[in-house]
Design a protein that fits this description.
The chain has about 900 residues and is an alpha+beta fold. About 50% of the residues lie in helices and about 10% in strands. The protein has 37 helices and 16 strands. Strand 10 and strand 11 form a beta hairpin.
């Protein structure tokens, strides 16, 4: 074998194409295979070294594993070193031949040469199976008391790997820790602290055993901060690795322990004040110090000091390196955790946080935006929103949707008055209407509907804004809705401008504007639906231009969109003479919503879903729930909204509004039973064009099964109770008194003698299972039969941010059997209440003797941070 490793590297680097590289690698691998087959021992180490390089390039090298095992048995130290390196890189824990290295490693761990021992320990730290750890643990334990610090350090790191693979061996290594903690060698102490940290990760209850080392570690840390040692100095910091490891251990021991926290407060203050922040090593120590201060039971002064350090990280000037961006990222992520402890301290850095929106790094911009959203309140809403609006013009498309949502959400919650609220949202729609979510559009529509004194001002402003910005879909939706509702104000001269002067708009200008909207290239289907609804409403308000309106509606009867085409056809039929007497009442102005419903935050479903928009999470079209139930309930929605009497979480008489989805069972992803609720096409066909009698098909005597969906995850069980007569227009449009009552089952209440857990008439048991600042988990429990409890788990988001990646785990005792359905969604919208549910059944085989007890674990992500809650729930009655 004449080819050397350096020659192979040169030839690969000189390749101009991937095919040329593959050809060279394949040729070299063939030569190496031949050498292995010929048992050329003098070239074995070189060949394995070349295989390591080939493995780095991503090519298969499994055929060299046996040769690595041969090398580690060599008496030549250089060959043994290559063999162990190959063992760690070319093998994985699933390799069948890995166990063959166990005997050789045990022999090397007993070697009198500490370099050989160190090689074996390094390999053990990198790659071992649980069985290998059990075999080699006694040898590692002996080496922890070795007289050589180099071996002792390696042994401590190997012990960390062993207990990670086999936690049952923890006790054997704990006995060696006292002597290791007394070591003055930094390497040994650092490895020992890593071992202690791993033990605490596996067994948090061992904190009591290690708190006695706190005074010793305080002394070590003070010496590192105050003294100087050239042997361990890195960029002016004495052994930053050891400092960081000690601070991390302080965090684990001091969390929830006031005595230890008070003991380490002084040394953390010393580290925070004496560590320079002009080098990356110092910043690493300061960052861990800040994290520890924010976790332990530290004093207010110390917390303020930590927040000021984060403020300095944010204010770091740009340079050619990436250091400032890294500092800003960790500072923003840390400040998000600080907000719930000290809002005022974070408020002081508002200007610096706003400056982070100028960053090119999208991750920093998103963190800054989330933090701004958290610190916004009634006092600073105007100044923060004003600054955030300036960034709309310079932000990229990927960031605009998040930015507009946060602005609209903040305005919803903290607007000082409705005039400012409307002006701000319209400005957002004008600048970035294509990136505004439907929830924000619907919210503005409800505000205008509920505020009669602003309607003249709003319809005028929206009319002229749309005329100048035809390309913004969000603006078009709101403007078309307002023009359709309040066009009479525009043409009467009662509309007012920003300076409160009257403005007169002609009928021709209004129809012409709608025509321009419909003529826009690549117009979305939703805007077309709004435009058609606007036109049908204008038809009754205008004396002239009726032919033009009819022509515009007729132009959409050939639309490729089925929804647009159906609306156009139905609206054209509504223009026939047979409807002259009732047309005005059908398209009358929608009654204003209740004021309380207007202030619900953006992100809520239900009453906020005005228009033909689709919710982003479920993809289901929803309609508004209005008090009058007029034509607009269907014209502006895509589906019929039906009142439902639910059992409720805490109030059994609560009225809720739920949208019935015809395709819910197809799109929800949840398992459904054979007896699926059906909806009739007539529920959407307002003029009965398809020959249906209207209404929902009747479902009676439905059994309640584990795989049925009754109001969870978007699938609703629907029961109807037909009245003596049914009017297709009156029933759907809310004009008559004979419309059928559509009762939606919530999962507990079922009409028409449908079998369900609620049929027994007993009130459900409500148990608050888990609660923190963001999430509340409630159990709604009901006895299903003698020894089975039916539990609906409801996940309530109490925060203003969406909760993602929800994982809910439940463990029961041996006398119970658990059956769980999948969670309806792993995303919980902001300020939602019972939108996400999970059904489970628990069979208590020892009912009357032992009560049900559950061990819960909830894991979720919010604002880019993972949260975990664990709790034992044992408040079930024995009768369950």
């Amino acid at each position: 074998m004449a080819t050397k490793l350096r020659d192979l590297i040169r030839s690969v680097r000189s390749c101009k194409t991937a095919a040329e590289e593959r050809a060279i690698v394949s040729r070299e691998k063939a030569l190496i295979r031949t050498s292995f087959a010929d048992n050329e021992e003098e070239y074995r180490a070189r060949n394995v070294a070349k295989l390591l390089f080939v493995n780095m390039l991503g090519h298969d090298t499994d055929f060299g594993q046996i040769e690595c095992l041969k090398l580690i048995t060599s008496q030549n130290f250089a060959d043994k070193k290559i063999g162990y390196l190959g063992l760690t890189q070319l093998f994985n824990e699933k390799s069948e031949v890995l166990m063959m290295a166990t005997h050789r490693m045990r022999t090397d761990l007993q070697s009198s040469t500490h370099y050989v021992v160190a090689l074996a320990l390094s390999a053990l730290s990198e790659i071992t199976t649980a069985d290998m750890c059990k075999e080699l643990a006694p040898e590692v334990c002996k080496l922890l008391t070795s007289g050589n610090n180099y071996v002792k350090k390696k042994a401590a790191l190997a012990a960390t790997r062993v207990i990670r693979r086999v936690p049952d061996l923890t006790e054997e290594f704990i006995e060696k820790i006292p002597s290791l903690m007394e070591e003055r060698h930094h390497g040994v102490l650092l490895a020992t602290l890593s071992l202690v940290e791993e033990i605490l990760e596996l067994r948090p209850d061992y904190k009591e055993k290690f708190k006695k080392y706190v005074p010793l570690l305080i002394k070590v840390l003070k010496n590192l901060v105050s003294s100087y040692s050239g042997d361990y100095e890195i960029s002016g910091i004495i052994d930053p690795f050891l400092q960081v490891q000690i601070i991390i251990l302080f965090r684990k021991l001091g969390e929830g322990n006031e005595a230890i926290s008070e003991e380490i407060n002084d040394v953390l203050t010393q580290v925070a004040t004496n560590t320079p922040a002009n080098k990356n090593t110092g910043n690493a120590v300061l960052y861990e110090c800040v994290r520890t201060i924010l976790v332990i039971e530290s004093s207010t002064t110390l917390r303020t000091l930590a927040i000021n350090i984060l403020g300095k990280f944010l204010a770091t000037k740009e340079s050619s390196s990436s250091l400032p961006k890294n500092l800003r990222y960790v500072a923003l992520a840390s400040l998000q955790k600080v907000v719930k402890y000290d809002m005022n301290a974070v408020q002081k850095h508002k200007g610096t946080i706003l400056d982070c929106l100028k960053e090119n790094d999208i991750s920093i911009k998103k963190l800054a935006l989330d933090l701004l959203h958290l610190i916004t309140n009634e006092k600073n809403i105007e100044s923060i929103v004003k600054e955030m609006l300036n960034y709309i013009l310079i932000s990229e498309a990927d960031f605009l949707q998040e930015l507009t949502l946060k602005i609209c959400n903040s305005v919803e919650r903290y607007a000082p008055n409705r005039r400012w609220h409307v002006d701000t949202i319209i400005k957002v729609l004008t600048l970035a209407g294509n990136h505004v979510k439907d929830e924000s559009v619907n919210s503005l529509i409800h505000i205008i509907s509920a505020t009669s004194e602003l309607q003249a001002y709003c319809v005028n402003k929206l009319f002229f804004s749309l005329r100048e910005n035809l390309s913004q879909d969000g603006l078009a939706k709101v403007a078309l809705w307002c023009i359709g509702e309040y066009a009479s104000i525009l043409i009467s001269g009662k509309s007012i401008s920003a300076d409160n002067t009257p403005v007169h708009v002609s009928q021709e200008e209004i129809v012409s504007l709608v025509d321009k909207v419909l003529a826009r290239h690549n117009l979305s289907e939703q805007v077309k639906e709004y435009a058609l609804t606007c036109l049908i409403k204008l038809y009754t308000k205008f004396n002239s231009n009726k032919d033009k309106i009819r022509e515009l509606i007729d132009s959409q009867t050939t639309s490729p969109s089925l929804e647009v085409q159906q609306r156009a056809c139905e609206y054209l039929q509504l223009l026939d003479q047979g409807f002259d007497a009732i047309r005005g009442a059908i398209v009358d102005v929608i009654p204003p919503l209740e004021v309380e419903s207007v202030k619900k935050p953006v992100g809520e479903a239900s009453l906020w879903d005005v228009g033909a928009g689709r919710t982003e999470d479920s993809g289901l079209t929803k309609a508004p729930a209005t008090t009058g139930g007029l034509l607009d309930d269907d014209l502006l929605g895509g589906l019929v909204s039906t009142p439902a009497t639910t059992s409720g979480l805490l109030n059994t008489n609560t009225q809720s509004t739920t949208s019935v989805d015809i395709l819910g069972d197809i799109f929800s992803g949840n398992a459904t039973s054979n007896a699926k609720p059906q909806t009739n096409v007539g529920a959407q066909d307002i003029l009965n064009l398809y020959g249906n009698t209207g209404g929902f098909s009747q479902q009676q005597n439905q059994p309640f099964g584990m795989n049925q969906n009754f109001g969870f995850g978007g699938n609703l069980g629907v029961q109807t109770q037909p009245q003596s007569s049914y009017d297709p227009l009156g029933g759907l449009l809310g004009m008559g008194t004979s419309n059928p009552t559509n009762t939606v089952s919530s999962g507990f209440t079922s009409t028409n003698n449908a079998t369900s857990p609620q049929s027994a008439g007993a009130e459900p048991l409500i148990i608050k299972a888990v609660e923190d600042n963001n999430l509340e988990v409630l159990f709604q429990c009901k006895k299903e039969n003698n020894n089975t409890a039916h539990i609906v788990t409801k996940f309530n988001n109490k925060s203003s941010s969406q909760i993602n990646n929800v994982v809910f785990q439940v463990a029961v005792q041996k006398h119970c059997k658990l059956n769980m359905n999948p969670i309806s969604s792993n995303t919980i919208p902001a300020f939602s209440n019972g939108n996400v549910t999970q059904i489970m059944k628990i069979e208590n085989t020892a009912q009357g003797q032992k009560a049900i007890a559950l061990k819960l674990k909830v894991v979720y992500d919010i604002n880019g941070m993972s949260q975990t809650q664990e709790k034992v729930v044992n408040s079930f009655p024995v009768s369950f």
